[in-house]
Predict the structure.
Amino acid sequence: MKRRQFLVSGAIFSAFLSMRPARLLAGWNSTIFQQSSLDAAFLNALGTKNLVRSNEITIVAPPVASDSAAVPVEIHSSLTCDQLFLFVEKNLTPLVFKCDLHGSMQSFFSLNIKMREGSALYAVVRENGKYFMTSVQVEVMAQAC
Amino acid sequence: MSSSVRIFAREESGTVQVKVIIPHPNESGTRKDEQGNLVPAHFIKEGAISLNSNPLFEIQLGPSVSKDPFFQFRFAGKKGDMLHVSFLDNKDVHYVAETVVQ
């Protein structure tokens, strides 16, 4: 009897667990955001750390940011990409965002980010299953995070 | 569910430029307050944006996005298109907004 109850409650619990991801939008992938080194973040998010440098991607960011709690970063590219990533090398967790683009989206994204210290920013895009990247160095004047 | 999200979408020569601002503390979980205690993580971690109920893009976000996240993006569209944005934070609170492209 105990065993049966255990099985039933386990079945209900696992059914509940399997329903949870459906409530989320796409299913947040926590492991890609938990990596502490840039190489590990590349490997986890992209499956490779050998990226082709391309000058068809542009990062627009101030060379010296006055407020590290809100550094404006703009990424645009002439490649027709279906995925877009931004990494900050020296942040505790380098990956800032991962974006899956569809249909009529243009390769442009802009947001404000936090930076722990001056660091290189890496923008990575995927075109036809291949990853391309570019990087810029941003220094910060006052520390946040 | 919260509808405090502000969204602006404006079309110019076939390209729609969108600005989205989500009023949110967006705490990374690594910041300390005046007493030296860690402020618990509370940040937007996912978003899904659709145009006339077709998916436009999905985004997964880490903790290093600024307070009151401010996103801008562009797509090929026209005036009158219906844009729907939906965001979710790590406390499972949804932030949704809709707008018509101007």
Notes: Helices of chain A lie at 2-23, 30-33, 38-46. The two ends of chain A are 54 Å apart (CA to CA). The interface with chain B takes residues 23-26, 28-29, 32-33, 69-71, 74, 88, 91-93, 95-106, 108-115, 144-145 of chain A (CB under 8 Å).
